[in-house]
Structures are given as C-alpha cells and as structure tokens.
Amino acid sequence: IQKISSALPGAFDLNSAIAPWVIGEEGLARLGFTKDSLGSKSILEALGFTAQQIKDASKVVCGRMTVEGAPHLKAEHLAVFDCANKCGLDGERYLAPMAHVRMMAAAQPFLSGAISKTVNMSHEATVEEIEDVYRQSWKLGLKAVAIYRDGSKVSQVLSGGGAKKKKVEAEEAKPGVNERGEELVYSQRDLEEAVARAMSFAPAKKRKMPSRRHGLTIESKVGGQKIFLRTGEYDDGGLGEIFIDMHKEGATLRSMLNCFAISVSMGLQYGVPLEDYVDKFTFTRFEPAGMVDHPNIKQATSLLDYIFRVLGMEYLGQTDFVHVKPVAEELGSAQGRTSSTHVSQMDLPLEKAAVPSAAAHNEIAASNAEAAKYVKLTQVADPLNAQLSKMMGDAPMCSTCGHVTVRNGSCYRCLNCGNSMGCS
C-alpha cells in the first residue's frame, strides 16, 4: 500500500499506480498472481474490477485532468483554458489548428525570420485538413509552418488518449485501435506505463565510508616525480576513496589532483565499478611520464596510467598491464582484504593483536590459492579475443605497416605484420 501511495502522485490512472513494477513480485505473490499469469490484464482487472469501475475510481483518485464540467465554471469561460490537445479521457475541447496559424500570422510581420511554432492537430485529422493548414499559412504570409498529428510517433509527451477512452467505453475494443479501426503504434496505456517506470527509478545512494578505515600507502616515482598514492577501504576491504600527493608539483597541479581524487572517490562511493576507472584511465598519455620506481610497474605513460595500474593490480588482481607480475602471496592485498572473513590487527583488542597463528597463516594461504584459482578460471579461452576486447582507443600505429596495434601485456603488438612495439 505504501508503494502504491508513493506512485499515485505521478500516475495518470490507477492502473499505473497499481502495477507489477510498482508493488514488485512479492506483492504480486501475496495477491496470488505472477507476471506471466496476468498476461495483458492489469492487476485491477485480474481482481475482478470492470473497466468502467476502474475509470470511475481513477477520476476520484487521480483526477479528471480537465476543467470541463468543473463546478462554478461557466461554459463561455472554458475557452480560456483550451489546450493544444484534448485534456483527460472526458475532455472534448482543444485549440483549433487555425488558431495556431492565426497567432503566428499576427506576429510574423514583426519578425525577419520564421517562427518556431507547431500546429497541433488531432489524430483524426485528414490529409485535406493538413493541406488546408499549409495553404492558409501561405496566404497569411508565414515563412514556415510545422504540423504535428497526435499519435504519429511511437512516443510523445502529450496524448489525446482516444484509444484508451474507446477501450473503456467498449470492453471488446482492442487497446491501440481508434474508433475508425486504425491500429495505433503507441497506446495511451503504454505511455503511462513508460512514464511510471521512468519515475520509479531511484537515484544511486552513497555508501558511507567508516570513520576508522584501513588502506594502502604506496610511494613511487613517475618520470622522476615522487608520488604518494593512499587509499581508504570499507570494512569488507573494498576500495572507497583515493588520495594523491606529489612533491614539488605546484599549487595548480596539486589542486587538480586533489579534485580528481575527490571525484573518483565520490564515484566509487556511489557505485561506479573500479573496473570502469581502470579501463578508462590506463594508458592515458601526458607528462610526467616515463620510468617508474615500483616493484611491479616499471614504466607509465602518465600519472593516471600509473595510479590506475596500481589500483587495478592491488584491488582487482589484474596483472595484464604490469611489467613484473606479483606472486600469489603479493595478491593478498587485493584478494585477502576483500574477503568478508578477513580480520585486521586493528580490529582486535590489544591483548589479542599478536603474531598470527599457524592456523591463520593456513587460512590466508588457502584464501590466496582460491583467489588465484578464480582468476585462472575466469580468463578468456581465446587470447586474441581477450586482446581485442581490451584494445585501447589511443593505441599507436605500427611503425612497420601502419596498422592499428593492440595491447600486448604492457606494450603494443601489430596483428597485421606481427611487429612488437617494444616488448618481445
């Protein structure tokens, strides 16, 4: 009931609020239905309510969506509220097509260019009526005119709702068929369901970092520039934030790096996968670049290239872009910390924070072995397809034949002539 109440403010009728995507599969099960058992019926129809009953209830709960028939409004005053289309299921009034044309004609003499204004026409408009609008526009001196016929597109912002009205009045009428028997591409119910689904999407929620957190501090040099990469982790060992510090970098670069680290950290906390960051920023090229003072990464094309190679190796266990592959024990920082059963020395009382026992060592070794087994099982069987799937957009041209190269470990290789760009 709470879900239905929350969906009512954005619903066109009760069927949009009392819908499978609103109450969920668990709610359907309580009512004795499944998505397959409902078929094309709405939940209210499956419960035994007639189309007329649903229509009457929708008028009370969701409103009539028109001022026609409202108390204290005289019939001669309704023209003030006329719109481009009929309003609601019971609305009959709307601006005549020539009203749009005459309004543009009144303003055209004061303009040097054409007017951006659409002439709205009902779904029942004929070819002759559309022809007359263009002819009258020409006679009145308009420089341009646009026509839109209701229901001519698969989806639209406003709809006359003729197909749905016909279905309510005649139970045997098919959805999406107008009174002349012409099949509509997009029915009113489809539009309402699409709007309800769009409004039901909840924004991403931020996963808050713990106030006391663990992480890594990695010191290295990229192109002679010293850089400190620090990370913050969740209790389960997942990466939640990064910090980037450099020596003698200057105020501008320091601020840019700080803002970049904050941006990446916010993305991680809002659910952006680390894999996406690694794929996007590895092999980016700008200075400082060159030789790297790191046990596993010996060369980087930029600071970001180095940072995300390190993060990919430490937290994802990726070793395809490192120059010296770490042994299984060194991958413990990536695989062991992300295990939910891992207990840090900082989490233990002081009297228990001692040297790990032999059983603990065996548990860590087993965890690392299981992680290595998982990495081996998830490798792609075809290495060529794996390379092509990881091909970077900034891959250099082959120095021999000029063909676009692909990643080969930490370098590039040409698939056309077999030339290697720096690696054996």
List keywords for this structure.
424 residues, 3-stranded antiparallel sheet, two-stranded parallel sheet, 16 helices, 9 strands, elongated
Question: Helix count, per DSSP?
Answer: 16
Strand order of the largest sheet: 3-4-5
Helix coverage percent of residues? 25-40%
- Helical/strand content category: alpha+beta
Number of beta-strand segments:
9
**What does the radius of gyration come to?**
33 Å
CA-CA gap between termini: 66 Å
Estimate the strand proportion.
5-15%
**Which consecutive residue ranges, at least 5 long each, have pLDDT under 50?**
162-175, 332-356, 371-381
Q: Can you summarize the main beta sheet? A: 3 strands, antiparallel
What's the helix-strand series? HHHHHHHEHEHHEEEHHEEHHHHEE
What overall form do the CA principal axes indicate?
A: elongated
Q: How confident is the prediction overall: mean pLDDT?
A: 76
Account of the protein in words:
The protein is of the alpha+beta class and 424 residues long. 37% of the residues lie in helices and 10% in strands. Strands 3-4-5 form a three-stranded antiparallel β-sheet. The protein has a two-stranded parallel sheet with strand order 1-2. Helix 12 runs antiparallel to helix 13. The longest helix has 20 residues.
Compact description:
This protein is of the alpha+beta class.
SSE arrangement:
Elements: H1 2-7, H2 14-17, H3 20-31, H4 35-38, H5 43-46, H6 51-61, H7 97-107, E1 118-121, H8 127-139, E2 146-149, H9 162-169, H10 188-200, E3 217-222, E4 225-233, E5 239-246, H11 251-269, H12 274-281, E6 290-291, E7 299-300, H13 303-316, H14 332-335, H15 358-377, H16 383-389, E8 406-408, E9 411-413
Parallel strand pairs: 1-2
Antiparallel strand pairs: 3-4, 4-5, 6-7, 8-9
Helix pairs in contact: 12-13
